[in-house]
Amino acid sequence: MLQSISKSYELIFQLLHMPSHARGKQEKDFIVRFLCSIDKLLFGNKSSLESLADTIQHTSFRNGQTLFSSGSRITSWYILLSGSVYVDGKLHHPIKSLGRPISEEDRYYSSDCYCLEQCDFLVIDLKTACQQSSQLSSMDSSITPGLAEDSVRL
Prior knowledge:
Blueprint: H1 2-17, H2 25-37, H3 46-55, E1 56-61, E2 66-68, E3 76-82, E4 85-87, E5 90-92, E6 96-98, E7 113-115, E8 119-125, H4 126-133, H5 136-141, H6 145-150
Helix pairs in contact: 1-2, 2-3, 3-4
């Protein structure tokens, strides 16, 4: 079981490192299925999830790296897949949503986020995602309330 999970992660990381314009239908479908498998990312609107499949990327951070800093502009939404991070006095483990604005008024991070070990993230560039879905609030309306409750407010 653990081996199949790590193989799925390896494949999804390879697909997410491909430029979105180079991803075919089969690759996009695999990304959508992977996103559906993450309990924290339950979308009521499949087209919103498919739109995210075009914008989502994978990135890794080393132990001690800063993911984002207090006062910096919110630019990305992070989904922690492996490792652990320290945000606002709390330790967070996978699978955790980080840096997602909870409301349209959220423009700047209110705390620092440090990686406590090697971490893998799914990263959604909010500007690109907003352009594709016309505005963040329309994207948010397709996300179940459970995600907002589990997100780290920043």
